[in-house]
Amino acid sequence: xxxxxxxxxxxxxxxxxxxxxxxxxxxxxxxxxxxxxxxxxxxxxxxxxxxxxxxxxxxxxxxxxxxxxxxxxxxxxxxxxxxxxxxxxxxxxxxxxxxxxxxxxxxxxxxxxxxxxxxxxxxxxxxxxxxxxxxxxxxxxxxxxxxxxxxxxxxxxxxxxxxxxxxxxxxx
Amino acid sequence: xxxxxxxxxxxxxxxxxxxxxxxxxxxxxxxxxxxxxxxxxxxxxxxxxxxxxxxxxxxxxxxxxxxxxxxxxxxxxxxxxxxxxxxxxxxxxxxxxxxxxxxxxxxxxxxxxxxxxxxxxxxxxxxxxxxxxxxxxxxxxxxxxxxxxxxxxxxxxxxxxxxxxxxxxxxx
Amino acid sequence: xxxxxxxxxxxxxxxxxxxxxxxxxxxxxxxxxxxxxxxxxxxxxxxxxxxxxxxxxxxxxxxxxxxxxxxxxxxxxxxxxxxxxxxxxxxxxxxxxxxxxxxxxxxxxxxxxxxxxxxxxxxxxxxxxxxxxxxxxxxxxxxxxxxxxxxxxxxxxxxxxxxxxxxxxxxx
Lengths: 172, 172, 172
What we know:
- Chain A is α+β, with helices and mostly antiparallel strands.
- Chain A folds into two domains: about 1-35; about 45-170, Jelly Rolls.
- Helices cover about 25% and strands about 45% of the residues of chain A.
- The first copy, chain A, has a five-stranded antiparallel sheet with strand order 3-10-5-7-8, covered by helices on one side.
- Chain A starts with a strand and ends with a strand.
- Chains in contact: A-B, A-C, B-C.
- Chains B and C meet through β1, β2, α1, β6 and α3 of B and β2, α1, α4 and β10 of C.
- β2 of chain A pairs antiparallel with β1 of chain C, so a sheet runs across the interface.
């Protein structure tokens, strides 16, 4: 995003002492939104080494992306490009919560003898669709609008894997 | 928001050979987006008193936020800043649907003796991650693009609570 | 992006009657973001004939909408306006995965004698809230940012139905 000066053309025909005159005035104007290359690239990619089935807190990385974007008001889209992992928001305080969530999700999506997928990770695929591939978070005054107890988590359901996720920041 | 061409006035008083001259230069500038102070704060916060586990229809508040924003085309992000509540979209006609959804979710996420979280509300945390913390709805022609039978719901899973939710409106 | 009114300087050197004159014109201008007509209508609607309970791959339609929008960087919001269908992202390679997902979802959300909704499709309503009504995908360099194995799916849970979905493209 670029904030700053730009140049436009003021064009006018006016009369002075009987002379009709055409004016082309170069205008430097501050402000507005110049869409330059930097702005086009407000997508941030992060890597993750997911050794075990777990919820990895990525709130710090998302905050960093928002800070780098310099966007004050808008949204951040956090997206997981994998099909046996997801993104969710849940409690950041007591680690027993994400532990319990994993236990709960394994009850919700257990293995099933009817499954045919050769990789034998269909339960992980279902968990990915249940938690979802991404979340959208509001940015207000340069800060993520998260509740006190909310953290953003990358959910690994088919470890061990080398993973990545994207943060796209959209300013208004 | 304003779309199209507009005309501005360049106004200047300058002196030339002792004549004070006033210049009005017509400037045509193509397009843009009128952004006034109000638009800076296109995040709307709503409170909610959630006495019981239930789906609270918040479609009216979301429509109100969109109307206040004056955004004609864009998206609205509805976000819940709590970890034992969520946002979902489902049927707005027969109240038996949301009643059945609660029964169903309690089957999907029952209590579990293995859970350790001291607040003993891990089933509510799981329901929050299953429904999700937010939804993104399209705005077209100043209206929410919702199906005839769709309503937007705040889902309370750990009552009674005083809750809030946010609506962020993004215009294009 | 620029908010509010601003003042710029029109600066020009021109000649009049042999005098070189320098003009500084103060300009108040509102505005900026260039919005052309095409950009105003970047919502795309697609129909779907959903004969059976299944995951219908709609990635092609979403890519087409992004291409038509000519948006290079931004997001695409894919939204389902129905309450017994959803949108999810999952594996696009082995068709056994979506087959297994349907089996898994039917285990997660089976019928229940306690359900009261007269249409008797409450399990489908619950599946819709579990997968979600929409997904938001990042656009970078004119392309959807999807993982190699990811496809976008319309999930039909209450067939047979004639359905539709929307793709809203937001450029930055």
